[in-house]
Amino acid sequence: MDAATLLALVAAIAALAALAVVLRRPAGDGAAAVRDSLSAQLQAAQQGTQGQVELVARSVGDLRAELSRALGATEQQVTTQAGTTQRTLNDLSRQLGTLSEQSQRIGELAKDIGSLQDLLRAPKARGGFGELLLERLLHDALPAGAYEIQYTYKDGSRVDAIVRYAGRIVPIDAKFPNETWAALANAVDE
Question: Which among 18, 26, 85, 147 would be 20 to 30 A from 49, CA to CA?
Answer without folding.
Answer: 26
